[in-house]
Amino acid sequence: MMHRILILASGNGSLAQALIDAQELDIEIVAIISDQDDAHVLVRAQNAGIHTQVIKVGSSRENWNTEIINAVVALNPDLVVSAGFMRILPPEFVNRFPTINSHPALLPDFPGAHAVRDALTAGVSVTGTTVHWVDDGVDTGPIITQMQVPVLPNDDEVTLHERIKKVERGLIVATIALILPTLERNV
Ligand code: GAR
């Protein structure tokens, strides 16, 4: 039986696209949830016939927490994948649903929303990408897989991020393949 996967994404959605295209994964993407109503990932989902839901942060962060938890309960996923989702999930969320995140740096180095810029500023010659379980910290959960990516002399944030994202797309698919057999299945 296919595993039920829920994707959270805020922007372009190239990581989500890699999961949509991954023929080798025995998964059903039950929905893509975004916090941005103009995110290109929503177009990608619609083109693939995948259910979408937009849950914007309004004046109350508490309400958003409740709304997103209720949405995920209703969708009943086996695994939540944060793929370019630029929000911190509340503890009640990550304690309830097994959730992984793809991050564009070699954690624990350069956590947070500007990992590629921070690696460039630090002057490292190697950075990379990490897939990790999400806990209630910021990019602090247990590391599942990592791959290195070189920083080239003329890199700017855009060129380096593009090189990292090519690796990220392969790593997120391979990592999900690794962990699917270990997941409890919701029936
Ligand atoms: C990816 O590089 C992902 O690791 C990063 O946003 C990009 C999303 O690309 N996420 C973070 O920085 C989270 N802290 P995409 O929209 O093309 O999938």
UniProtKB/TrEMBL annotation:
Question: A single Gene Ontology molecular function, please?
Answer: phosphoribosylglycinamide formyltransferase activity
The family database entries (Pfam families) matched by this protein are listed as: Formyl_trans_N
| EC main group | transferase
Q: Which GO terms describe its biological process?
A: 'de novo' IMP biosynthetic process
**Transferase in keyword set:** yes
EC numbers for this chain: 2.1.2.2
Q: Which reaction does it catalyse?
A: N(1)-(5-phospho-beta-D-ribosyl)glycinamide + (6R)-10-formyltetrahydrofolate = N(2)-formyl-N(1)-(5-phospho-beta-D-ribosyl)glycinamide + (6S)-5,6,7,8-tetrahydrofolate + H(+)
Pathway(s) this gene product operates in, as recorded in its UniProt entry: Purine metabolism; IMP biosynthesis via de novo pathway; N(2)-formyl-N(1)-(5-phospho-D-ribosyl)glycinamide from N(1)-(5-phospho-D-ribosyl)glycinamide (10-formyl THF route): step 1/1
Name the keywords, alphabetized. Answer: Purine biosynthesis, Transferase
Q: Formyl transferase N-terminal domain location, by residue?
A: 4-175
GO cellular component annotations, sorted alphabetically?
Answer: cytosol
Protein family according to the UniProt entry: Belongs to the GART family.
Protein name (record): phosphoribosylglycinamide formyltransferase 1
Q: Which organism is it from?
A: freshwater metagenome
